Amino acid sequence: MPSKKQEIHSGYDSYLNIEKVLKAHGAKKPFMVCDSAFEFLFVKDYIKALPFPIVFFSDFTPNPLYEDVVKGVNLFRENGCDFIVSIGGGSAIDVAKCIKLYAKMPDGEVYLKQEYKDSGIPHMAIPTTAGTGSESTRYAVCYYEGAKQSVTHESIIPDYVILEPAFLKTLPVYQKKATLLDALCQGIESLWSVNSNEESYGYSEKAIKAILSNLEAYMKNDEKALEQISLAANLSGRAINITQTTAAHAMSYKITSLYGLAHGHACAVCLPYVWRYMIAHPDECIDARGEKHLQKVFKKLCELFYVDEPQQAVYRFFRILQFLEMPFPTLKNPEDMETLVSSVNPVRLKNNPVALDRKAITEIYTHVFKDGNNFQKKNIEKFLKKCHTTYELEELQQYALENLLNFDRFCKAHGLLYYLTEGTLLGAVRNGGFVPWDDDVDVCMTRDDYDRFLALWQKEGSKDYILDCFETNRRHWTLCAKLQMKKECRFSLKRLKGIALSSAPSIDIFALDSVPAKHSKAQKKTADAIRFWRSMLWLKTGYSHDYSTLKWRLIKLLSFVTPLSVVRKRISSLQRRFNAVDGDYYVNYGSLYDVQKETWPKTWFEGTRTAAFESHELPIPQNAEAVLKTIYGDYMKLPPYSMRFPKHSYFVNTRVNE
Predict the structure, then answer these.
(1) Domain 171-387 has CATH 1.20.1090.10
(2) Exposure string (b/e) for 144-167, b if CB count within 10 Å is 16 or more?
(3) Which of 40, 32, 267, 254 is nearest to 132 (CA)?
(4) CB 3.0 to 4.6 Å from 131: which of 150, 182, 215, 441, for a disulfide?
């Protein structure tokens, strides 16, 4: 069954829709449920100035009691309110949901024991954290006579939602981490839940991707990341609204009450060991769709985490806990193990795709409390030496995007035409942005615009960047120009130390030169000569020290009697050899691909065309698809997972803080 239709307003300043929604709905006396943090919210004055006689209610505990809800119901009725607004964390939204459900029920009998019906009272939810996605679920929680009560009804899904990212800026650090982990756990659990369907898959996959892509930037309060995490948490809530949570959540609650871990933190220490158990016991699958379906889910998680094997995806999750500095608990008393095992709700376990009996639950808890911290110390560091996690790559891509947009602004201001090319063009056409495992930006320009760009940038370019090319760096080692970041960041190419003017993230700018024909002998001879001189360039600048073959040893000998200035001049002359001829083709001699893949008809570049790249419209060749087919063949076909990794080996310095 599809989820209830909601009206969702998201993005910065979306809180300004509060008044619009209230007026559009004809609200006369709104009832606002808010927690103790309300007085510190930046929207406090805006809300208090709204042209409505708002009744405020905040008399409830962080783990709301049934009696708190009853107080809210009574206040709502006494004041004749007609619209509920909740603003705060999950508790405020849960209380508001319960008040909506109970407000029109008869007195005299406990509301929890009565039949649930839609009260028809509109509810607008405004979450100030990004975790449970409670603003889009049919679930609420309150405590009655010391026991936790789950309240579930389709009607309590809020009618309106305001997702204002600015709320997330001031969250306490631990709360940011814990709520983020809750959203990630919900996305993963929703994906493997026995109740999953096509709609929930869409929500959970988008949520996981957004969280992994923005995790580190979110912790730095990057504005785009705040917005993306706000949306991701909501998506995870919409997914869980369909599927319900599974074993990791079921096992987390008693950890919170006994050991004081926040809910999301508690879920996150359980999830990797539940995950590992399921990978090891696929034959115990209880999902009606069978073991093959479960293996498809594990494969999908491999895709989302960019790994080959399910166990590697679990390592990625451990790495996130390590990065966030979220430790595993240690057992205080041996008796706690029985308490923990007995606390797990068997109803929630029915949603888990692999059967978990008491023995299995005990095994998982034992790993959580005895092995968790040691596992990270022993295994994760070794794993990290081989590859960095997705969110680190995404942080690098944010720098690359910043570079590209600054380059784009400069070109537009000076009437220079450029095109996305190579992997950046592939990402624009296939992904609408970066290829997920790409770590740089490639653009190309006709030789005339290229030369104009070099001259203009040296006169008017931003002081935040360094132009590295033959004209500015006597040790320039490549056949394209590079526009390099000047500011310090965590990413650097150590192999370029002493060669490049900066080893920070940069843009590769390739020149398009004319050639009269694509497969002519003259062009092949020119390309071979350029490759020879490029090899000498690498040796002379120190970029390469490969003397293992006869060819390299010969070039090394010749380099002793050939000045570097001669090498550069020879390369430049060869690249421009046919520009005076009115050729029909462009060639990119600067690429490391074979020249046959880098030669295209000029007609493919005629006219203007743009494509979406990370939500920005940027120029691409008129026949970009033909360009990509020439370079990559079937460019829409994804490579194996094992080939989906960054190519430039950026060093990540975890000690650099901007």
Answers:
(1) yes
(2) eeeeeeebebebbbbbbbbbbbbb
(3) 267
(4) 182
Task: Quote the pTM value.
Answer: 0.65
Summarised one tens digit per residue, pLDDT across range 99-144 is 999 999 998 899 999 999 999 999 999 999 998 899 999 999 898 9
pLDDT value of residue 101: 96
Q: Helices marked H in 105-197 — which ranges?
A: 173-192
Q: Which two tokens stand for residue 501?
A: 């003017």
Rounded CA Rg of the chain? 30
> Do the beta carbons of residue 440 and residue 425 sit within 8 Å?
no
- Domain positions in the chain are 1-170, 171-387, 390-652
Residue 548: predicted pLDDT? 63
pLDDT at res. 377:
53
pLDDT of residue 148: 80
- Tell me if residue 481 falls in helix, strand or coil: strand
pLDDT of residue 216: 80
Residue 597 to residues 438, 448, 511, Cα–Cα distance (Å): 20, 22, 15
pLDDT of residue 119: 95
CATH T-level topology, domain 1-170: Rossmann fold (3.40.50)
Cα–Cα distance for residue pair 103/373, rounded to 1 Å: 47
Mapped onto helix, strand or coil, the DSSP state of residue 160 is strand
pLDDT at 385: 46
**What are the structure tokens assigned to 424, written together?**
């950046």
Closest CA to 101 of 139, 50, 56: 139
Distance CA 32, CA 23 (A): 15
Long-range contacts of 327-335, Cβ-Cβ distance < 8 Å, separation of 24 or more? 327/372, 327/373, 328/269, 328/368, 328/369, 328/372, 328/373, 328/376, 329/255, 329/259, 329/261, 329/269, 329/368, 329/369, 329/372, 330/369, 330/370, 330/373, 331/369, 331/370, 332/258, 332/259
Which of 363-377, 580-594, 635-649 tops mean pLDDT? 580-594
The pLDDT-based confidence of 378 (bands split at 50, 70, 90) is low
Local structure of 358: helix, strand or coil: helix
Sequence letter at residue 50 = L
Nearest to residue 139, comparing CAs of 303, 338, 4, 301? 4
